[in-house]
């Protein structure tokens, strides 16, 4: 399988800008809402830039993909757990 120089449907410069803006957005959202999954996403999105280290390295390519999948799954699980805890806390406060 031959790797192309452009791995993503956008240029590398646009990808870097997208990742920086997305990371900044999720960090600001975390500061505002204190939702832990947003920190995970602030790491996961820019982590896709690791592919540019050695674009022809298949192991790195698939490793980054697996890492991204794990981080996204982790963010999803953390979101569910935190939502349940918040609902329990709200219910306990409503009873008082």
How are the elements arranged and paired?
Elements lengths: L11 H22 L2 H12 L10 H38 L1
Helix pairs in contact: 1-2, 2-3
Describe the model.
The chain contains three helices and no strands. With 96 residues, it is mainly α. The chain is elongated. 9% of the residues are buried.
Question: Main attributes?
Answer:
96 residues, mainly alpha
Number of helices: 3
Query: Main beta sheet, described?
Result: none
Give a count of the beta strands, DSSP E runs of length 2 or more.
0
By secondary-structure content and strand pairing, the structural class works out as mainly alpha
Global shape: elongated
**Mean pLDDT metric:** 90
- Intertermini distance: 63 Å
Stretches where pLDDT is under 50 for at least 5 consecutive residues are none
H/E element string? Answer: HHH
Beta content comes to: under 5%
- Whole-angstrom Rg: 18 Å
Helix content: over 70%
In brief, what are we looking at here?
This protein is mainly alpha-helical and 96 residues long.
């Amino acid at each position: 399988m031959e790797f192309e120089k452009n791995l993503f449907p956008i240029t590398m410069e646009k990808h870097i800008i997208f990742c920086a803006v997305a990371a900044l957005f999720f960090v600001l959202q975390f500061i505002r809402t204190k939702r832990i999954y947003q920190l995970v996403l602030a790491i996961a999105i820019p982590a896709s830039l690791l592919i540019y280290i050695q674009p022809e390295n298949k192991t790195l390519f698939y490793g980054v993909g697996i890492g991204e999948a794990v981080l996204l799954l982790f963010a999803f699980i953390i979101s569910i757990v935190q939502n349940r805890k918040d609902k329990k806390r709200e219910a306990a406060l409503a009873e008082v």
